[in-house]
Amino acid sequence: MDLVKALSEQYMKAEVPQVHVGDTVRVSVKVKEGNRERIQVFEGIIIARRHGGINETITVRRIAYNVGYEKVFPIHSPNIVSVETVRRGKVRRAKLYYLRDRIGKQAKVKEKL
Length: 113
Known about the structure:
Helices cover 9% and strands 43% of the residues. It is mostly beta strands.
């Protein structure tokens, strides 16, 4: 068991971004196209945070062209360049799956002041 912990701690990031469910975040991801590499930004609301340690992931939901789509990002992945918080959300739930059924202004989360 200690061997697994030691191995996983080796690949974990030193500074984990302080993000919570309900926050609007901007995730910068390395995208490889052929032999070129660029950074693509994905901005949306965190609707779930799962697991822990090296396996920790966040699910970010975004609505573009009236279509909602979600991406799951492993926090400790080397392909994640940065996660910056745009807005702090005021929520009372750990998972915001109810936002999937909502559209327009109903899909907003109140801002924490």
